Amino acid sequence: MTVGQDQMVNILMVDDRPENILALEAVLQQPHYRLVSATSGEEALKCVLKEEFAVILLDVQMPGMNGFETAKLIKARERSRHIPIIFITAIHQATEHVHHGYAVGANDYLFKPFHPDTLRLKVESFVKIHRDREILKQRTRELEEANKLLKRTSAELRRTEALARVIGETSRDTIVTYDDAGQILSVNRAVVEMFGYEQSALLGQPITTLVNVAGGEIGRTVESTAVRQDGMTFPVDMQVGEASLEGLQIYVCSIRDITERKQIEESRTQQYQVLEQLVVERTQDLYRSQERFRKIFQSSPSLIAIRSRKDHRYLDVNDYWVRVTGYRAEDVRGATADLLRLRAEGAEEQLEGDPEWQRSVRNARVSYLTRGDEVRQGLLSTEEIELHGEPCQLILITDITDRVMWEKEMARLERLNLIGEMGAGIAHEIRNPMTTVRGFLQMSKKNATHPLHEYIELMVSELDRANAIITEFLTLAKNKTTNRETTSLNAIIDAIFPLIQAEALLSDKDVQIELGNVPALELDEKEIRQVILNLALNGLEAMSAGGLLTIRTQVDGADVILEIHDQGPGIPPEMMEKIGTPFVTTKETGTGLGLAVCYSVAARHGAAIEVRTGETGTTFLVRFACAGAEQKSQG
C-alpha cells in the first residue's frame, strides 16, 4: 500500500479528564487524523500494544500510573520506543519535572493553557516524520523484494542456460533428466511415442523404469535395452551427460530407438524423416528457451545491458534501461561509447582505463548520466558471459536514486532536531541570569527599605551575561551579512597581540607569534578578530602555568593557514566529534558557543577549520582559500 498525505494516521490522547480530551479533539480534528483517547496510563499501554501511533499526547498528573511512568514503559518496548511523546500538563512546570519528562523519553513538553496553533503545528511535524519513516520502510521493502526477484531470476536463467547447453550437446530422441538418486526430473514428449508413457506419469519415477543406465559411461554412446510401458523391450543407443547446478548434480540421458537400424529392411528415407522431426522439436525447444530468457530480460526492474568485451559494443539493453536513460534502443545497439558515463561513488571524473563495467563487481555504488544529463545513483553488478562464442559482459544497475533522496531527507530532519536542542540550550543558559535578577527584584518588592542599589551591579552583570549569550548565538546565523575588505591577516594579529599577551601574563603563561609572508585576503576584520581571540583564549585556559601559546601564519599551496597551538593536555576523544556544536563545552562556566561562532565565521569566509590534538597540546588550523579570497560571501 502506498503511503501518502491522504492516509489516516493514529494519534493517541491520554488524559483522565474527559473535558481535556474534548479540547484536544477540537484542536486536532482533521480528515486524515484518527484520534484515539485513553483515560489512564494502563489504558494507553493497551492501545499502544494493539495499534501503531504517529504521536502520543500524554497528561502528567493522572490517578494510578502517572504520565512519567507510562512514557517510560512505552519507550522500554522495542516496537513503540520510536513513537514521539508530547507531555501536556498544568501542574508539573518546574524545571526538574521537565527534565524528568525528557529523561523518560518525551520529545516535547507543553504547559496548559497551550496555544492551539502551537499544538497543531507540533503534532503535524511529528505526523510528517511518521509518514516519512513509513515511506522509507516501504521503499526499503520494495527494494528488498526487487533484489529477491532478481536473484531468483538470475538463478533460473543460469539453470535454463546450463540445461539448454547440455540438452543441445546430448539430445537424441527421448531426453530424460534425473538427479543423482536416479529420480526423473523432466522428460520430453518423445517418450510418449517411444515408451507409451505420458510425460507427467514419469516425473519422480526411477530412471530404470525406462532404461538401465548402470555401467553407462558419461559422454559416450552405449547400447542398452529399454522397456516400454507394455513390457516389451527394444534396443536403444543411450548417451548420458552431467552438469552441476548450484550444488545439485543433474544427469541428462538421451535415448534413441535403434530397432530400425537393427532391422535392415527399414529404408533410409524413414530415418531421414525421423531426424528431420527431431530438428523441428529441438528448434522449438530452443525458441521457447530464448523466449523465456527474453521475457525475464525485458521484465526485470533493473537496468540491464549486454556488451561485447572485444570492441565494447552494446549488443542489447532491456526496456527499463531505455525508459530510465532516455535513449532509443535502436540507437544504443551497436554503439561503443560508454553512454551512461559511469563514475564510482565520490569520483569527480569518468572511469578510465579498465572500465567499471568490465570488472566483476557486486553492488558497487556508482553514478550515471541519462541522455538528458540527469545524474542518477545505482548499484552496479557485472558478470562475464558468452553469447554465440563471443565473450560478453552482463551489466546490471539497480537504481537507488529515490533511496538516496530519502537518506538526504532523513539527514535534514536530524539537522532540524539539532536546532531544537540548540533552542533548549539557549533557554537553559538565559534563564539562569534571569532567575537571579528576578529574585532580587522580588526581594525589593517585599521590602521597600531593602537597599536595592547594593545589588544593581550584580543584576546588571547577570543581564550582560544573558545579552552576551544571545549575541554569540546570533553570530552563528548563516545569513548574517559580512563587511569584507582586502585586509592583512598579519596586521589583525599584530593589533590584538597585546590583548592576548596581557591575558597570558595574568595566569603566568606566554604567547609568541610567527608571522609568515602571506597575501592579503577578503576578510571581515571584526569577525576574524573574534575567531583569533576565541581560539587563543581557549588555548590559554587549557594550559597550566608556564605554558606557551604559539600563533603563526603561513602559505600552504593555494591556501593561507592561521595556526594556533597550545601546550595543554589535549581534547578528549569523546569530545572531538562534538567540536563546534553549540552549548557543548568542557569548561565549568563556558556557554559552548565560542567554537560554534568560530566555525560559523569560517563558513562565511569560505574557510575550513582543522583540529589536531594529543597529549602534548592542541592545534587549530583555519585554512583560507586564496582563490576564493576575492569573492565575497553570498550570505
What order do the helices and strands come in, and which of them pair?
Layout (H helix, E strand, L loop, with lengths): L8 E6 L3 H11 L4 E6 L2 H10 L4 E5 L7 H10 L8 E5 L5 H9 L4 E4 L4 H55 L3 E6 L4 E4 L2 H6 L3 H4 L18 E7 L5 E13 L2 E10 L1 H4 L5 H32 L3 E6 L5 E4 L1 H7 L3 H4 L10 E2 L19 E6 L5 E13 L2 E10 L1 H46 L6 H22 L10 E3 L1 H18 L3 E6 L5 E3 L1 H18 L5 E9 L2 E8 L6 H4 L17 H11 L3 E7 L2 E9 L10
Parallel strand pairs: 1-2, 1-3, 3-4, 4-5, 18-20
Antiparallel strand pairs: 6-7, 6-10, 8-9, 9-10, 11-12, 11-16, 13-14, 14-15, 15-16, 17-19, 20-21, 21-23, 22-23
Helix pairs in contact: 2-3, 5-9, 5-12, 12-13, 14-15, 15-17
Rg over CA atoms: 39 Å
Strand content: 15-25%
The class by helix and strand makeup works out as: alpha+beta
The biggest sheet amounts to:
6 strands, antiparallel
Helix content: 40-55%
The total of helices stands at 17
Strand order of the largest sheet: 12-11-16-15-14-13
In whole angstroms, the N-to-C terminal distance is: 43 Å
Low-confidence stretches: 628-635
Number of strands: 23
Average pLDDT, all residues: 79
Characterize the overall form: elongated
